[in-house]
């Protein structure tokens, strides 16, 4: 579905096929066709396997295929990141080390092409930033190599930690581990649609065509247009004063707010009326996400009222790249200050994950990731 949506949005199919050949994997070809899903006309990409990798692959074999391919460095890095996320999720779900995972769902050629092909399409389109809506994980049950499982399956449930998800539609799986790992690797923000000026819209279809449900993936392409290269939007700032709440609950409240769509949450110590010390709890959210945050504040705190005001934001254009360090891969968030300079920082969550797994100090991992990016940093170039 990702391949179909990106090709439908403008990724040249001929160039996609040419670059897939850089995998140096025989035994498949790719075809494109139009299909109808409910009232929506969408692009369906079929990977026709004629011979080769029909059986599950271990992670080391996938790494070897990627390393020896003629893909671009960024597609190689992103592909490794997707497979590593999948391996960790599948390993956790089945209580085995990630290096011992054999991918039943992604080991065959068609799914291998889905992952690498999706990343190739992003490269062809010059994508520098990806945002995504909350993810519909489906309902009911699904059939897997491990038998019948609830939807979402165990691997999707693990990959979904920290992401906004919901369940709606027909009784079937609507998000696969492959799709969610790919989305996680590419996406910088999950939440309501940001302010944009679309230049193209694409619809991608998979095999499933349930009755009464237009089962497609929609992609909007947009180009930032302000002359200074900065995005602009309007968000809501929500504040409430608290002076009679157990401080031990703040961590839980902040976590609930982030899970409910908050863009940021801060706690500011203040002196309130009658000289009492207190806290101003401030949350930022897109306008359409107000109600879930209000629910959290009124249910989880002693607040009897909150203040809501619109505020404008100026946003630097952001993109991600990945660096390899001892213990795993770390995403680097890069913000373009102007046409000639930018600033970058390692993603803390990635560094924390490596720290927990390896026992190394997270401070050392943050520093190592920053150094690795500085060494590999490309020269300044045009951005979209």
Short description:
This protein is of the alpha+beta class and 384 residues long. It contains eleven helices and 18 strands.
How would you describe this protein?
- The chain has 384 residues and is α+β, with helices and mostly antiparallel strands.
- The protein has three domains: 2-222, no CATH class; 231-305, Alpha-Beta Plaits, CATH 3.30.70; 315-376, Ubiquitin-like (UB roll) (Roll), CATH 3.10.20.
- Helices cover 33% and strands 31% of the residues.
- The protein has eleven helices and 18 strands.
- The chain has helices at 2-9, 13-20, 59-68, 73-94, 109-125, 154-159, 177-186, 250-259, 290-300, 348-358, 362-376, and strands at 28-37, 40-49, 57-58, 102-103, 131-132, 135-136, 141-144, 147-150, 165-166, 189-190, 198-205, 216-222, 230-242, 264-271, 277-285, 307-325, 328-336, 342-346.
- Strands 14-15-13-16-17-18 form a six-stranded antiparallel sheet, with helices on both faces.
- A hairpin with a 5-residue loop joins β14 (264-271) and β15.
- It is globular, with a radius of gyration of 22 Å.
- The relative contact order is 0.12.
- Mean pLDDT is 87; it is low at 379-384.
Keywords summarizing the entry:
384 residues; alpha+beta; Alpha-Beta Plaits; Ubiquitin-like (UB roll); six-stranded antiparallel beta sheet; four-stranded mixed beta sheet; globular
SSE blueprint:
Layout: H1 2-9, H2 13-20, E1 28-37, E2 40-49, E3 57-58, H3 59-68, H4 73-94, E4 102-103, H5 109-125, E5 131-132, E6 135-136, E7 141-144, E8 147-150, H6 154-159, E9 165-166, H7 177-186, E10 189-190, E11 198-205, E12 216-222, E13 230-242, H8 250-259, E14 264-271, E15 277-285, H9 290-300, E16 307-325, E17 328-336, E18 342-346, H10 348-358, H11 362-376
Parallel strand pairs: 2-11, 5-10, 6-9
Antiparallel strand pairs: 1-2, 3-4, 7-8, 11-12, 13-15, 13-16, 14-15, 16-17, 17-18
């Amino acid at each position: 579905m990702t391949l179909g949506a990106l090709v439908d949005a403008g990724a040249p199919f001929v160039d996609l096929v040419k670059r897939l050949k850089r995998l140096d994997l025989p035994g498949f070809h790719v075809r494109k066709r139009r299909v109808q899903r409910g009232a929506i006309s969408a692009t369906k990409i079929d990977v026709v396997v004629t011979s080769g990798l029909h059986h599950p692959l271990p992670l080391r074999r996938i790494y070897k295929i990627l390393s020896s391919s003629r893909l671009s460095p960024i597609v190689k890095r992103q592909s490794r990141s997707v497979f590593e996320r999948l391996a960790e999720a599948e390993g956790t779900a089945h209580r085995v080390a990630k290096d011992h995972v054999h991918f039943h769902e992604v080991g065959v050629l068609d799914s291998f092409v889905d992952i690498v092909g999706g990343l190739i399409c992003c490269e062809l389109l010059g994508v520098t930033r990806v945002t995504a809506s909350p993810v519909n994980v489906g309902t009911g049950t699904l059939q897997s190599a491990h038998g019948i499982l609830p939807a979402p399956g165990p691997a999707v449930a693990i990959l979904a930690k920290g992401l906004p998800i919901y369940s709606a539609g027909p009784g079937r799986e609507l998000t696969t581990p492959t799709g969610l790992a790919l989305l996680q690797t590419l996406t910088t923000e999950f939440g309501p649609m940001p302010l944009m000026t679309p230049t193209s819209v694409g619809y991608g279809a998979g095999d499933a065509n349930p009755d009464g449900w237009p089962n497609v993936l929609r992609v909007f392409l947009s180009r930032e247009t302000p002359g200074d290269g900065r995005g602009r939007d309007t968000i809501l700032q929500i504040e409430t004063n608290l002076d009679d709440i157990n401080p031990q609950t703040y961590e839980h409240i902040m976590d609930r707010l982030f899970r409910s769509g908050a863009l940021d949450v801060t706690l500011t110590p203040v002196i309130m009326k009658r000289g009492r010390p207190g806290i101003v709890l401030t949350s930022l959210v897109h306008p359409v996400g107000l109600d879930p945050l209000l629910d959290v504040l009124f249910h989880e705190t002693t607040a009897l009222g909150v203040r809501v005001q619109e505020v404008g934001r100026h946003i630097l254009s952001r993109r991600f790249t990945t660096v390899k360090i001892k213990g795993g891969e770390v995403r680097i968030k890069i913000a373009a200050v102007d046409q000639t300079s930018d600033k970058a920082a390692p993603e803390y969550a990635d560094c924390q994950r490596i720290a927990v797994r390896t026992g190394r100090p997270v401070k050392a991992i943050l520093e190592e990731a920053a150094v690795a990016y500085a060494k590999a940093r490309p020269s300044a170039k045009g951005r979209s």
